[in-house]
Input
Amino acid sequence: MGNYRILSLPGDGIGPEVTAEGVRALEAIGRKFGHTFEFTEDLVGGIAIDTYGIALRQETIDAALASDAVLWGAVGGPKWDNPRAAVRPEQAILGIRQALGLWANLRPAKVDAALVENSTIKAEVLDGVDVLIIRELTGGIYFGKPQERRTVEGRRAAVDTMFYTEDEVARMAHLGFQLARARRNKLTSVDKANVLETSRLWREVVAEVRPEYPDVEFENVLVDAMSMHLIRRPSNFDVIITENLFGDILTDEASMLSGSLGMAPSASLGAMRPDGTGLGMYEPIHGSAPDIAGKGLANPIGMLRCAALLLRHSLGLEAEAVALETAVTEAINAGARTADIVRPGEQALSTREMAEAVLSRLG
Ligand code: IPM
Ligand code: MG
Output
């Protein structure tokens, strides 16, 4: 029986609605398994800009560092959309990832058998799909300097910088091989080594780490080819490691295998304790969906699966994580559907009702 501190950062749009269900899920797990969760909540993203003038405050980072885990909703919306604005909601997510040192972003893409018909991909292609994409999250072109506007011969120009050190790559390789071992024993490293120097370094360092894991099947794949394989033969892949921007793009693509962006969770992890647990941040793959915000239409499953990942990775509570994940699968198998996955002619559940359909199955 444990006592855990969770920082809840609902953000904007549908963030608050789904985060509320993540909190309720953890409370339900606490009641069932005898744990107590202390929740603290803070503002991030657009609502923090409106309230404090910045997207992410140092107080929020300090609160996160004093917590066992962070639940993150979503940030952004049309109100704060001006790309030239000095403060933008996205600064919150990028800032907190870096401030907490969360360099590994685990994005599982699994197809629920009951939802195969929701995908635009053919059912036979989706059979057996269970991929874990690990996206590097605190390096690469997202953070490399310089990143700026310039004037070149009187014309507007801009530069972004893709930068990696060998240590940033090596820890990704180790994590990839280790997680592959715990799954189906296959690792695919994705890069653009035929063009980019950072990718050639990536490939070189992964090759140096590889002899420590001779039992794990391994391949290098170029990112353009990978984007094709992901929708042509996704069941061939187990664990995939890749750099930040490639991972951003490939994980949106992979989420479409499951038919709805609303289903998928993600875990952002950094340096973990020797027992494998440690501070992590858990956010659904979906965005703030301003068009449906506040209407009770959002699918809470991505967030409920985030709560399960939080239990597993930050708290080391495997049985609790499995209980929640099983309840999600059972609810979906029993036909519980929010608007994004509802079948023609059937009634869609609200965000709260969908979460209830899951939590009532916890027993
Ligand atoms: C994601 C998002 C973010 C990213 C944006 C909101 C900055 O697309 O988490 O995938 O690019 O990392
Ligand atoms: Mg993205």
